Amino acid sequence: MISVKDLKNPHVVRRDLLASLVVFLVALPLCVGVAVASGVPAELGLVTGIVGGLVVGMLPGSKLQVSGPAAGLTVLVYEAVTEFGLATLGPIVLAAGLLQVVLGVARFGRWFRAISVSVVQGMLAGIGLVIVLGQLYAMADTEQPGTALAKLAGLPGLAAEIVTDNEAMTAFGLGAGTVAVLLIWPKLPARVRLVPAPLAAVGLATAVAALAGLRPLVADVNGLLHATDLPGAAEFGNLANVAVIGTVLAFALIASAESLFSAAAIDRMHDGPRTNYDKELVAQGVGNTICGALGALPMTAVIVRSAANVQAGATTALSRVAHGLWLLLFAALLPAAIGIIPLASLAGILVHAGCKLVPFKEFGPLWREHRGEAVLLAVTALAIVVTNLFEGVVLGLLLAVVKSAWETSHVQLSTRELTGGRVVVTLTGNATFLRLPRILEQLEKLPQDQPIELDLSGLRHLDHACRVALENWARRHNDAETDPVTIRR
């Protein structure tokens, strides 16, 4: 929240207002690009950015984190709009926002930090791959196939179309040029980099298209009032659909995880107050509830905008609130400016953003030091590409639980023979069903013609499956002429 003390300090106000302009210039092309890639009117991305600034920016949680439409939810939004229709998007986002508020009030915010980092990285990598596959077609002004696998299979045909079709080649050139500017911009002098890279890339592509007399596809712009469509009772009735409920859960969980992981990253970039995760979750929920009521895109905290906010020198929430005001003024006064931006250039921004979601540099060290975590990341990402976002994340979480259970279920089996031929078998550690095959394999090797005592008193944990299996083994192992196996607990 903005304190009165901060507003009375002209140095703080001037610094944060300048930072807000930087964030606005970063957010503007991203809001439009995410909306177009999600299959919704461009203005709805601006609505979400405005709510993220003016509403979420005023709420407690994180002072420097900036919220708005995120590339990480593009795939899920596109699937929801395709399957249920644009009119149902609002109720889905609203319900997801209310769920976030409930989770925040119930103090679940801190528990999101317990989600495996590899699963989250795999989720973002899978989303990034799907975004890149889809936006490569958008860069050529070509209709993209429906599934990620179909997009992957269609890449040779896309390449052939770009080479043989002048219009596709022209559009792809604008998109590729946008990506090139984004890659080169960080290496330019600091004075040049005062202009945010996304804005410079889009501006250059738009100028080239205009000066060269090109006619690439552009966004269809009708203004905020025309694009905003408040959901009605019929649309809210769709929330009874099981598939819609699953989408609501996916929106809430993924948006919450992405926002709170972003908050953790931003906290490492500054020395100010740390994020209150529960309050931040409530703030994100309130923002999504309002976005849903307006029929707009869902929001998350966005690491690109948040990092730009910190790097621009912001120290209070004034910068993120003001960036929302600049978005509102732009959408109200200059909506036609959006309609001259080539869609291929916006697709180039999304391709660049999608590639940044894939942890290429981190995967090698992770594979060398924590191979299991690397496998978890890769499986989650590939599952999202092969199936869909929700199923891929669920598979990743299940694998993380299994991996954790496997690593913690260490059990040791030792044997010693006493005077008189009695054999004592001692189990220590955690005996779970995951280690049961190994335990039984070792027990089956014990002699059947000697009295055996199975000592379980050293176990810290013995699950039901192991208990039953050990009892069955004890009953049947020794032959009829030998005393049965005894169990000491």
UniProtKB/TrEMBL annotation:
Signal peptide: none annotated. Residues 14-380 form the SLC26A/SulP transporter domain. Coiled coil: none annotated. The chain crosses the membrane at residues 17-37, 84-106, 118-138, 168-185, 197-218, 238-261, 281-304, 324-353, 374-402. Keywords: Membrane, Transmembrane, Transmembrane helix. It is found in: Membrane. This is SulP family inorganic anion transporter. It comes from Streptomyces cyaneofuscatus. The lineage of its organism: Bacteria, Bacillati, Actinomycetota, Actinomycetes, Kitasatosporales.
